[in-house]
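Hey, does this match?
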Amino acid sequence: MKLPHAFLAGLAFGAGLAVSGMTSPARVLGFLDLGAIRTGHWDPSLAFVMIAALAVAAPLFALSRRRGRALDGGILPTLPTHGIDPRLIGGSAIFGLGWGLAGICPGPALVDLGVAPWPAVAFAVPLGIGLLLGRRD
């Protein structure tokens, strides 16, 4: 029963990214370019998308925590007990650099596979390699 829920959630997420224009690297880079605030060309739309996502997700996470189970009845995963370590900082820095340079992050890249496949593949292949390398212990 989890696969249909995951598919529908992914479909809703992808549709939201497409409708909001967040699959466009220009839109994301317009948000990340804080120097554009002075010229009046800064694009705050990504902030609005993030706020809307939090407004939808936060109550659902709170409800799941109160119930002690996921909304689909599954068991909630346990949170990691280790703190911030160099591996987390390094991975976050690499993610941030990639996001800032390319103007795209993994979610929109997967949506773009159906819209602009070759640029998305150029992003998704290194992403996959990075995920595989990250799983090595």
Observations:
- DSSP finds seven helices and no strands in the chain.
- Residues 2-135 form one domain.
- The mean pLDDT is 84.
